[in-house]
Amino acid sequence: MKIKYWSMGVVSALLISGCQMQSPVLEGTLDAIQADSLYLYQVTNDWYGTLEKEAAIPVKDGTFTYSLDSLKSGLYALALENQEMSRVTHFAKFFIEPVPMKVTVRQGDYEELDLQVEGSSLNERYTSFVHGLNVAGNKVMLDSLDRAFYAARDKGDTALMAKIKTESMPYYDKSREQSRLFIDQAILKEQHTAFGLYLYYTYRFQNQTFNTVGAIDTVFQHLQEYPDEARQMVFYSRITDTLERFRKCAIGSKAPFIEGVDANGKQVSLDNFKGRYVLVDFWSSGCHWCRLETPHLQKVYDAFKDKNFTILGVSSDYSKEDWLRAIDEDKSFWNQIIVPRKEIRPLMDRYCIVGIPHIILVDPSGIIIAKDLRGEDIYQTVESYIQNN
Q1: Domains in the chain, start-ordered, CATH in brackets?
Q2: Averaged pLDDT of the chain
Q3: Which of 24, 245, 345, 360 is deepest in the core (most CB within 10 A)?
Q4: Which residues are registered as beta bridge partners of 64?
């Protein structure tokens, strides 16, 4: 029988290798909180606080474990509630990365949760950033003003509410400016780091639209400047997936399918207007900025409605009554359709719409030739195409 003798160096290497091969796990403890389960959410938009449920985590004797094998590095949240993403109110956000992590969950202020997290360098940077942003934006002051306003509202004291609102505005204006400067500085400091990708995604990318292939390619080139660690994060895949979606609805691409119901209950689609230039106006009755564009739409409609041109208003209203009332009030009596509620989000995604109003121009063959038209630019753009054809 042969006996193999292993040097301590080989044994150490094997032990280290074995440790590296272990699955990263999130270990947690509840401190003075009673719960049978916790719920892990992915933060899909940190700016608006929107969440998407990832998993339910069983809690036993105040402790829990959760494998991080299937999660990409990114911003997540723990909550006591099992709710839809728009209804989760009591939660705490933290960074997860594929390393052994520990978290202690406590009850925080105003029924929010408070987390003490160990093991993640990204979470340390996130915590530091949030603290700095709160200081820059004077969050303590704004929170006290908010509480005073809500207390006055609960008492029905409209005079005091108006007074607090008026006196608060300079503080909110200053907070926005100081917060913006702090974010700009943080993005500059963290450029081309993994945490910098989170900052770019949250405070730059999510607020932009990309209407041309050139603009999309520029962002792809920017992404190449981040390290490999950043490319393993959830933000990287979100950005690349979104850019590919924008590519499908960029200027020069075929306008995606649109169908809705007009005021008479008739099915109408964008295809019904092939052979004409179509100004497609995505709007809703409750959108103040959408309705401010009506005079500009009226001007271009009156000028070119008999010249191979029309307008198709596409409403995302939930209420048909509100939609019809707005059309009547604004006298916007061109082609108008309302989209079924379940089709609104898919339609917005197909057209890469970040917000409304969203006004585009489609040529007679169904190709998008202009996007994000506003104000006088609407008339000038349509005129340039009509006169040249």
Answers
A1: 8-119 (2.60.40), 134-189 (no CATH), 194-248 (no CATH), 259-387 (3.40.30.10)
A2: 91
A3: 360
A4: 28
